[in-house]
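Design request, tokens follow.
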């Protein structure tokens, strides 16, 4: 096998090497049963054990209370953008959304198809470079929606809003990266392909009593109650993606769980932010107090030097460092599975570049 690259892609993203090795064995043969994990029936005892283990490990990692259901669905966060208001927002009712980036904005547009949307807070005025500190919540609002981490603009909610209405959170890019109190939320949802596995499965953690508050008839595949009653087996689930998520949860538990991965994530992010702050050639794009631990974004003071930095990264075997096409610049995605070694290689490149161009 050729040397693995230092993978800073925003998603699908780096996976732990241990998970890749074990998953590759499972593709050839799962648990000595004479069949590949991608050949077995989703109704079989063998897969039943996989999905049950995935749920149990996730519950332990996040300390999920018993009155919450854990679902492994499909369609990514984008489907959740529509599925949540379809189930819980009536035509004449209002939901509160915070506009803190591209994915938050897309969630807002989907919600408008089903009811009224009140923008309770926005950082659009400064190109999404910060997290608003005050949220306006009108009387009678059905729920508040936040996007906890903003991959494109490099901001993150470091303090979860304390509100009296149900709180809904898109955690696609920071689930399992830090300690959070699940009981603060009515729904947590996340595409798995950044911190929780590979593309193809969407994790939904939903309070069971909230799942019953459906406001209109919805198709079976978009009804949380149906998925809960069938334990994520309403239709054929993404078997391999759930298997990889289970292995990822297993890896995370083996290294000390969320307290340990949060410690590592803070250390990794700090190393990169320190060098970006050290040299004037770098211009971090997010306010200091709201900087993401997962997606570190910056521009160069002289944009003419972008090609030089990209070349240096390529020579160091670094990939995925270009900023999102909407904003340009640079982005280092430092998800759970990104090893410290990769961070140090990037820091060395940035330090060399900083010394050369000041």
């Amino acid at each position: 096998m050729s040397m693995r690259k230092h993978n800073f892609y925003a998603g699908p993203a780096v996976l732990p090497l241990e998970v890749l090795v074990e998953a590759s064995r499972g593709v050839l043969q799962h648990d000595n049963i004479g069949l590949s994990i991608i050949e077995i029936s989703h109704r079989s005892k063998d897969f039943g054990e996989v999905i049950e283990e995935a749920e149990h490990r996730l519950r332990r990692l996040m300390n999920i209370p018993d009155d919450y259901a854990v679902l492994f669905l499909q369609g990514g966060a984008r489907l959740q953008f529509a599925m949540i208001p379809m189930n819980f927002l009536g035509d004449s009712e209002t939901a509160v959304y915070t506009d803190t980036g591209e994915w938050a904005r897309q969630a807002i547009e989907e919600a408008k198809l089903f009811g009224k949307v009140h923008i309770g807070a926005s950082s659009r005025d400064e190109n999404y470079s910060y997290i608003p500190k005050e949220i306006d919540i009108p009387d009678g609002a059905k729920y508040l929606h936040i996007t906890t981490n903003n991959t494109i603009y490099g901001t993150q909610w470091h303090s979860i809003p304390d509100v009296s209405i149900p709180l809904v959170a898109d955690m696609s890019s920071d689930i399992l990266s830090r300690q959070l109190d699940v009981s603060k939320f009515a729904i947590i949802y996340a595409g798995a392909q950044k911190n929780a596995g590979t593309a193809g499965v969407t994790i939904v953690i939903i309070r069971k009593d909230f799942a019953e508050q459906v406001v209109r008839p919805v198709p079976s595949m978009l009804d949380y109650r149906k998925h809960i009653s069938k334990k994520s087996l309403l239709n054929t689930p993404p078997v391999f993606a759930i298997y990889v998520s289970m292995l990822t949860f297993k890896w995370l538990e083996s290294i000390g769980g969320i307290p340990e991965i949060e410690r590592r994530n803070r250390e990794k992010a700090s190393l990169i932010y320190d060098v970006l702050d050290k040299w004037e050639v770098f211009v971090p794009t997010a306010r200091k107090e709201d900087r993401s631990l997962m997606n570190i974004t910056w521009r160069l003071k002289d944009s003419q030097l972008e090609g030089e930095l990209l070349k240096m990264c390529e020579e160091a075997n670094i990939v995925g460092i270009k900023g999102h096409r909407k904003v340009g610049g640079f982005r280092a995605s430092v998800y759970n599975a990104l090893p410290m070694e990769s961070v140090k290689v990037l820091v060395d490149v940035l330090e060399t570049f900083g010394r050369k161009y000041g």
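Comment from the thread starter after seeing the answer: thanks! The chain has two domains: 17-254, 258-357.
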